[in-house]
Amino acid sequence: MTEPVTFGPGPLSIEQVVALARSRAPSQLASDPQWRERIDAGARFLDSLLDKEGVIYGVTTGYGDSCVVAVPLEHVEALPRHLFTFHGCGLGQVLDPAATRAVLAARLQSLCYGMSGVRLALLERLHAFIEHDILPVIPQEGSVGASGDLTPLSYVAATLAGEREVIYQGVRCSAAEVHRELGWAPLVLRPKEALALMNGTAVMTGLACLAFSRAEYLLRLATRITALNVVALQGNPEHFDERLFAAKPHPGQAQVAAWLRQDLAITAPAAPLHRLQDRYSLRCAPHVLGVLADSLGWLRGFIETELNSANDNPIIDADNERVLHGGHFYGGHIAFAMDSLKTLVANVADLLDRQLALLVDVRYNHGLPSNLSGAPAARTMLNHGFKAVQIGASAWTAEALKHTMPASVFSRSTECHNQDKVSMGTIAARDALRVLELTEQVAAATLLAANQGVWLRGQAADARPLPPALAAMHEHLLQHYAPVLEDRALEGELRHCLAAIAEQRWELQHA
What we know:
Blueprint: E1 5-7, H1 14-21, E2 27-29, H2 33-51, H3 79-86, E3 91-94, H4 97-111, H5 120-131, E4 135-136, E5 139-141, H6 150-160, E6 165-168, E7 171-174, H7 175-182, H8 193-198, H9 202-232, H10 242-246, H11 251-263, H12 280-283, H13 285-307, E8 315-317, E9 322-324, H14 332-360, H15 387-402, H16 425-458, H17 468-480, H18 491-502
Helix pairs in contact: 1-4, 1-9, 3-6, 4-5, 4-9, 9-11, 9-13, 9-14, 9-16, 11-13, 13-14, 14-15, 14-16, 15-16, 16-18
């Protein structure tokens, strides 16, 4: 476990959200009395406006285009329950536990900004859900990304109120049952509290945090796989010369080239090779991966700014006693970030798929056996090595590329043309995670094939020792994935490798 993640007046990082989502860090609610007073001051300010019969969207009015419908004060208390009730129409698969924890963390962090008009008691109960790992069952589909993630977040609001279902201690059960077991009274949401929980970007932002973390690791892994393939394909390491990248100084591109030099232990110009230039999937790997590397900075900025913001409506400025009606629920920054990320990641899939195609093809693999089969000569006609794995990687790559269609441009006018321009940020985030899943499958396939190629090279009488970083990786992989001498079904090993990628098991400590 790492240091506790503190929800309060300070910002959170993507890494902290991911640590919570992966159950690698505990959490706590800030004890700062000034911050706690500021939270409750917003709720008291709203109550004072109710006493004066002030008009506040979603508090004394209906929702969306129904904002012109006044709600009498005697019905104001019932309005929050109606909001989460009629939004209980999500469909599709439910979010997995890690994604659900990320959503809870993102929503709590936004409410901690202190401009949502909710009680401290609500923050405490939402944090208690995180602390006790009570996970609302949230369907993935049904959000257009403005007015925020209304439908999926209605499942958070409803479970805090003791309705619908949660996963608790690994069992799906009613939220009411869990409240009884823990001796809690379900929250009766106050005016604005259901709206504050639902009318924000927590689902897309939580998913974006997870996607960013996976993409960042995939970048390093793809670089390591490329280095293994340079060895397996007897590539020209001068393609990664530092002087070459000084001539076109994109920082991320140069960083990937530096990682490759480190992995390949290149400290001086290499001995002349029989060919000057490798095919693009090796020679241009820094240029492909470098686009992702150079994009991580602004992607982080978009995601962390959204994470550490008040992104509901209206904004409650208790300090100046103002209610600010706006559109902070619009998830355009996350939508663009995720549409961009899925394109960046799909290009990684395409790069690795092309490297794998070179490895298995005797026309291009510079002396490796067909399909990387390690079978002895007497049995080569029976064995097909990585042939089907390459076909599978091609299928996964094609599907990843297909998913790069940007979601954000498919805005649909909805809700009686009140929500007439929406972000589609949650669809973009879900797409990005799917592209990552497919690309990780390509990475697993190419990693096992690269390791087979390196092992085959090592059997030659004139084989050179591997550079230290690659030697350590190669030996580790051989412990789990034996060379393919006779055909065997590789699904189990591919799934094992995927689990290692998901857990970011390899340190990949590049300088």
